Amino acid sequence: MGVRLMVVDDHRLLAEALASALKLRGHRVLAAAAPAAGAADLVIARAPEVCLLGTAAPAEPGVFDPVVKIKRDRPQVAVLVLGPVPSPRGIAAAFAAGASGYVRHDERIEGVERAIMKARAGEAAVAPQLLQGAFGELLNPAAQPDDEAQRLLEMLTPREVEVLVRVADGEDTRLIAAGMGIAPSTARTHVQRVLMKLGVGSRLEAAALAARTGLLDRAGSLRGAGEAP
């Protein structure tokens, strides 16, 4: 017996091709819609048994908000996320939002159909190789050069890094200016730019963020290397 489906994806051609293939296999596809904004409302209004919800960036913050909304308003709808090869964090985020499974964009139609049937039956629908890769990465994480401290450091100029270190050491504007040989007004400008780039509202918040992320240790290593003869 066919499943009442919806296919929602940012790529209209992909959505329509998948919908057509599923129709040929006897499923009732209610709609193949492209817009990401409003996708949840569309699914809630049509209330399919299973929704295939596409995403191009499973690790982006908020990408699974439509899943949360669908499951809140239509808990009986099983949502399958359709996307690229995800990171372990992407898979975890999808399930945390309430998704019933994750299907790769390049999956064969038979695999998509198996995932649909599992989702309708209330089972988790994730390819074993995706789970194996996820567990493997979680158990043996690779070094991440783009950690938060490194990302923040790359946002700051060398002078702003020095200002941040001095702020974390508790120096006020006068001491920062004297220590760096610049005018107090210039020091004040540097401090404001550091706060703006870090997205914080006070010197205390900047110091706390720098300490929490390990940025201060990283900055100290960089300064030490730069002062070496």
UniProtKB/TrEMBL annotation:
PANTHER family: DNA-BINDING TRANSCRIPTIONAL ACTIVATOR DEVR_DOSR
Domain HTH luxR-type: 149-214
Domain Response regulatory: 4-120
Protein name: Response regulator transcription factor
Gene Ontology biological process terms, A to Z: phosphorelay signal transduction system; regulation of DNA-templated transcription
Top-level taxon of origin: Bacteria
MF-aspect GO terms: DNA binding
Upper lineage: Bacteria, Bacillati, Actinomycetota, Actinomycetes, Kitasatosporales
